[in-house]
Specification:
224 residues; 4 helices; four-stranded antiparallel β-sheet
Amino acid sequence: MASKQALKAFLAFSLAAAGAVQAQQQPARTPSASTGIYSCTDARGRTITADRPIPDCIDREQRELNPSGTMRRKLEPTYTAREQAEREERERLTQLQAARLLEERRRERALLVRYPNPATHDRERAEALVQIDVVIQAARKRLGELADDRRKIDDELEFYKKDPSKAPEAVRRKMEDNARSVAVQNRFIGEQEDEKKRLNARFDEEQARLKPLWASSAAAASAR
């Protein structure tokens, strides 16, 4: 009987010793340093603080703070599908507008490099118009030649004035070809006149955009 009691006492002592050793090997538990503090202002203007995301502020921005009180991150509101779609559309339009403004600034810089002053812009407009006028003059010269040819054709048709249908086929073909060539030249001249209008409109638009840029450039140069 005494031996059994001694055995139980020995086992109890051994278990207690093993527990003590295990306790020494495991670090003591401390509160998690990653635990954050959540703070927000609700719809009634109250400042709410909690140790987890705040349900009353689900529709507004929340701040997660470190234990020291510094801000760790911002939590965006939780949006409905419709609100999220509207938010994304606003962001898309904002980005599109920013891209347009950036492209506009790029084009303005390129224009200013190409035309650093009004004289260079006026000179290029004049040169471009001269080139079109040269082409128009060539077409009008061709019209004059076609008019001379038509007079010769009419002289040949004089004999068949009473009945043009009896005129030789070659003469009638020359008359038709002449009429088609005249129409082509007149159409070409009209297209070139339209091009002159487009060209002037383009230079007028550029000039309107360049005037404030020239003024800013001149002011910056005088301030140096």
